[in-house]
Design a protein that fits this description.
With 70 residues, this protein is mainly alpha-helical. It has one domain. It is built from three helices and no strands. Helix 1 packs parallel to helix 3.
């Protein structure tokens, strides 16, 4: 059974691998083992925020493109 920390590390890896066009990332759990759960959660929050900002940027571009096409 996975520990909470192992699950957080897996979540970080999955978030990193959710970007289109990026080669798969494999994280050696030993590299993040020294971090506490709060730090791992902070990393996840940062990745989610970055994904949201990229999504908003893509939507802004799409709206501009739509206006140009009309």
């Amino acid at each position: 059974m996975q520990t909470r920390k192992e699950k957080l590390i897996e979540d970080i890896q999955n978030l990193l691998n959710s970007y289109r066009g990026v080669n798969p990332t494999f994280i050696n759990p030993d590299l993040l083992e020294f971090m506490d759960e709060d730090t791992l959660i902070s990393i996840i929050d940062s990745l989610l925020l970055q994904k949201e900002e990229n999504k908003e940027s893509d939507l802004e571009w799409l709206e501009k493109f739509k206006k140009i096409e009309k």
